[in-house]
């Protein structure tokens, strides 16, 4: 028999539970964004207007700020008429929502012009500084990018470190031309070494020479994110220390430094306390890591200065010149919540990084001699349509560099860098422990390139640094580990956009059985519509075959390798021979055939994809009517471009000849 008191107590309990549920609903908000990506124009660095990808006709793209536990809905419409597009939310785990991760032909179909895709996910278990960007054809270097900040509780009230105010600083590099135009010269027979395009400037919060007005005796939380596409940067503030408290969304033990080294895609949160007096202003400094540049143009400013202003009535500071680049090595950062190094791996994946040429003479990037080549079916959709064969790595194709991971196994990625460049690598869907980052090869110090030996290596840190983006030193090695506890299809790739265009990526298919069993992993109707509108297959193996998943006939594959014995010197000799032959033809044309209409454009398009400067009145002028000054201008312009290309090649190969 239920007493009145018991019934009343039961009603009170139900009321409490209802209030708790309602409070939970009120706390978790839904943020809806409707964006159209389209071409516009902008003078970003004060040097000149260039095309940029705008958001709803505006640039830069908006920053997103949400609280932990919130729901996010992003409706992206492709307003460009010349390209597909996509979005990736960098650093977000997308737990149980892997199709929202974004990379075309990995988890999604390409978004064609005029179509709209919905990215719908919850930020359930992450806080910190993240960002979003296009994952299509280097588009984020054309400005399609923004920050994504997740507060730790409402208004960041649960942040473990005290501060007074918060400031967001996005750093990046900026180019004169669009990625499409730059790629024509980059992925080209006449660039056999893969020398990356050189940025025009470094930018801070999407501009140059930023002014930041500060208050005295104030603790600021700075969220620093490198949203550039290529160059790592040194960052410091004159005569001010920075205390690192979070990296890539992972809280750290406080670590104080006066300089950071920030690769593309990395994020640092630091505390900085301003001075008590206001009798001086200070420089905010960014510096190119010039070792990443094959050529340093004479007009390139390696340092960029912005201004920390205590007093507007005083002059802006000059650039701060330092004697040495003594920066914090992030490898030695310790997570705030210490986690011991993961145990022996269940699955070790060893990846040799190589940059080399294929039969078309272009330079590509390889993991284990495979350059990533997209399949005909997005890999996630191959998983969902493969049934019991989803565990067979064969079905994902010969050139996707795919590895299948079992549920909850400890995975070790070993990277041996056989390239002379620096590579920042990013893992989708996870953070990882950094166990080994070997010293950089330096012949002057007697150091030689060394591959990782699992039986003979330096001791692992007791509590390894954890993050989602880490750099691999030139001709060195790196070891990271993570637990396969997030079923999905995850990209792992170099975050230098030029290197991703060259194919430096692998795909991890994690726990395919759980992907198939989860209703939340089923492809949404909207995403299926995107696939239909792009004429992308949604079932089958990498070749689109559904009858026999082991039959890869018709799959996309890389070009053949250059025959053994055809050395790099041979490639260079061939390139210079082609270059010289083309130069000879152009010279003959300019001197002997100037009366042929449009010849100038033909000749210069052969050389560099550009056209000479010709006024409208000159286009129909015969050779006899051209005056000497105009003719000399044409010849000088051609020779100047030719010399620039020759110097670039010679600079790259000075250590080979």
UniProtKB/TrEMBL annotation:
Topology of the protein relative to the lipid bilayer: Single-pass membrane protein
UniProt-annotated location(s): Cell membrane
Domain Plastocyanin-like intervals: 44-153, 165-311, 372-513
Gene3D superfamilies: Cupredoxins - blue copper proteins
UniProt feature coiled coil, ranges: none
Segments passing through the bilayer: 571-594
Primary subcellular site in the record, as a coarse category: membrane
One annotated Gene Ontology cellular component of this protein: high-affinity iron permease complex
Keywords: Cell membrane, Copper, Glycoprotein, Ion transport, Iron, Iron transport, Membrane, Metal-binding, Oxidoreductase, Repeat, Signal, Transmembrane, Transmembrane helix, Transport
Listed GO biological process terms: arsenate ion transmembrane transport; cellular response to iron ion starvation; intracellular copper ion homeostasis; reductive iron assimilation; response to copper ion
Annotated PROSITE patterns: MULTICOPPER_OXIDASE1 (PS00079), MULTICOPPER_OXIDASE2 (PS00080)
Listed Pfam families: Cu-oxidase (PF00394), Cu-oxidase_2 (PF07731), Cu-oxidase_3 (PF07732)
GO molecular function, one term: iron ion transmembrane transporter activity
Cofactor field: Cu cation
Signal peptide: 1-28
Family as reported in the entry's similarity comment: Belongs to the multicopper oxidase family.
Protein name: Ferroxidase
Annotated source species: Huiozyma naganishii (strain ATCC MYA-139 / BCRC 22969 / CBS 8797 / KCTC 17520 / NBRC 10181 / NCYC 3082 / Yp74L-3)
Gene symbol of the encoding locus: KNAG0M02610
């Amino acid at each position: 028999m239920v007493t009145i008191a018991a019934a009343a107590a039961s009603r009170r309990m139900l009321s409490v539970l209802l209030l708790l549920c309602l409070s939970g609903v009120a706390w978790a908000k839904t943020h809806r964004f409707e964006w159209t990506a389209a071409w516009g124009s902008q003078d970003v660095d004060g040097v000149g207007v260039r095309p940029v990808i705008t958001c709803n006709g505006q640039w830069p793209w908006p920053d997103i700020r949400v609280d932990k536990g919130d729901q996010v809905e992003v409706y992206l419409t492709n307003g460009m008429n010349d390209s597909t597009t996509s979005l990736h939310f960098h650093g977000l785990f997308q737990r149980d929502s892997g199709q929202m991760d974004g990379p075309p032909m990995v988890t999604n179909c390409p978004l064609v012009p005029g179509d709209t895709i919905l990215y719908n996910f919850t930020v359930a278990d992450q806080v910190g500084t993240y960002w979003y960007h296009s994952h299509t054809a280097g588009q984020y270097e054309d400005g399609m990018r923004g920050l994504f900040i997740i507060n730790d509780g409402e208004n960041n009230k649960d942040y473990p470190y005290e501060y007074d105010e918060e400031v967001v600083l996005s750093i990046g590099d900026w180019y004169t031309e669009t990625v499409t135009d730059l790629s024509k010269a980059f992925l080209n027979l006449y660039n056999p070494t893969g020398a990356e395009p050189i940025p025009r400037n470094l930018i801070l919060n999407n501009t140059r020479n930023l002014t930041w007005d500060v208050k005295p005796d104030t603790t600021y939380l700075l969220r620093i994110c490198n949203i550039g596409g290529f160059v790592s940067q040194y960052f410091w503030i004159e005569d001010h220390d920075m205390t690192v408290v979070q990296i890539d969304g992972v809280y750290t033990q406080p670590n104080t430094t006066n300089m950071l080294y920030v690769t593309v895609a990395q994020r640092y949160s630091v505390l900085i306390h301003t001075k008590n007096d206001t009798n001086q202003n200070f420089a905010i400094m960014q510096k190119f890591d010039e070792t990443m540049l094959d050529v340093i143009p004479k007009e390139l400013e390696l340092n960029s200065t912005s201004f920390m202003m205590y007093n507007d009535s005083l002059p802006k500071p000059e650039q701060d010149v330092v004697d040495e680049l003594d920066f914090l090595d992030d490898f030695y950062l310790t997570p705030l919540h210490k986690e011991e190094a993961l145990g022996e791996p269940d699955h070790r994946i060893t990846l040799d990084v190589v940059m080399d040429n294929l039969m078309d003479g272009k330079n590509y990037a390889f993991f284990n001699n495979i350059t990533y080549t997209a399949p005909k079916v997005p890999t996630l959709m191959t998983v969902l349509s493969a049934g019991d064969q989803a565990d067979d790595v064969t079905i994902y194709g010969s050139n996707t560099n795919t590895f299948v991971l079992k549920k909850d196994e400890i995975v070790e990625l070993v990277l041996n860098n056989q390239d002379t460049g620096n590579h920042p690598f990013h893992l989708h869907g996870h953070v990882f422990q950094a166990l080994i980052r070997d010293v950089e090869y330096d012949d002057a110090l007697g150091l030689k390139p060394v591959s990782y030996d699992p039986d003979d290596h330096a001791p692992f840190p007791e509590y390894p640094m954890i993050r989602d983006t880490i750099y691999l030193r030139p001709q060195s090695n790196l070891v990271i580990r993570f637990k396969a506890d997030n079923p999905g299809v995850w990209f792992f790739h170099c975050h230098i956009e030029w290197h991703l265009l060259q194919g430096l990526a692998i795909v991890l298919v994690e726990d395919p059985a759980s992907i198939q069993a989860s209703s939340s992993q089923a492809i949404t109707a909207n995403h299926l519509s995107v696939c239909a509108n792009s004429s992308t297959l949604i079932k089958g193996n990498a070749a689109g075959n559904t009858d026999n998943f082991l039959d890869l006939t018709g799959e996309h594959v890389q070009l053949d390798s250059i025959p053994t014995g055809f050395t790099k010197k041979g490639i260079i000799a061939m390139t210079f021979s082609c270059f010289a032959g083309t130069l000879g033809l152009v010279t003959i044309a300019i001197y002997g055939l100037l009366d042929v209409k449009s010849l100038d454009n033909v000749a210069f398009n052969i050389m560099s994809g550009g056209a000479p400067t010709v006024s409208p009145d000159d286009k129909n002028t015969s050779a006899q009517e051209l005056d000497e000054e105009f003719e000399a201008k044409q010849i000088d312009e051609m020779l100047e471009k030719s010399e620039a290309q020759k110097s670039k090649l010679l600079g790259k190969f000075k250590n080979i000849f």
